[in-house]
Amino acid sequence: MKKTAIILGASGLTGGLLLEKLLVDDRYETIKLFSRSRIEGLPNKVQQYIGNLLELEHFKNDFTADEVYCCIGTTAKKTPDKTMYKNIDYGIPVAAAILAKENGIPTYLVVSAMGANKKSSVFYNRTKGEMEQDVVNQGIPNTSILRPSLIGGDREERRILEKIGLVLFKAIQPLFIGPLKKYKIINAESIAQAMLNLANTTSNTDVIITSNDIEQLAKRNLK
């Protein structure tokens, strides 16, 4: 039986790449997008639900699927207000996990970040850590939390300082060996592929997936 997938954050880099993969994957009959604005030019396979994701509970009746892919995330630059930042990076993924649990969705995957730690003194790391904990607390059978390092890929918006950082970081990539592998730059395409592979295998038992493991999962050929 063909499946239905939900994506939160399909307008972002990782979510957009995941959407492209699901569109050509014949295991999926329906893709549901929940977002603030419509993405034009998508085929009938895609159903779009437009509204305020900070009030995700209003979508409860439509929030039904086999899998949820949460690629929601903002940055300190885009969202300098810490209350709003937490509403997005903590509130939306946790609200989605609650709805997934209530509606009997068995698979939930969310993109977090390296350094996530609910006990951290750093606000952003603590926010991610608290999100992870409350997602896990929902008890969804197949939960995967991906912690990528610095994400590489072509973004629509211009992030000059980030691009400079990526160039400098790439220059020292050969130094990241052994335990340091998890700090290597990871492409958004690899994250999207790893999420898709995780959702279609029962062999992975790790809830937390670090960056180097994401890269390995992306290389699996499950089709």
UniProtKB/TrEMBL annotation:
Tell me which residues make up the NAD(P)-binding domain. Answer: 9-150
What Pfam families does this protein map onto? NAD_binding_10
Q: What is the superkingdom listed in this entry's lineage?
A: Bacteria
Q: Which SUPFAM superfamilies match?
A: NAD(P)-binding Rossmann-fold domains
Q: Residues of the signal sequence? A: none
InterPro entries named among the record's database cross-references: NAD(P)-bd_dom (IPR016040), NAD(P)-bd_dom_sf (IPR036291)
**Under what name is this protein listed?**
Uncharacterized conserved protein YbjT, contains NAD(P)-binding and DUF2867 domains
Which organism does this sequence originate in? Answer: Maribacter aquivivus
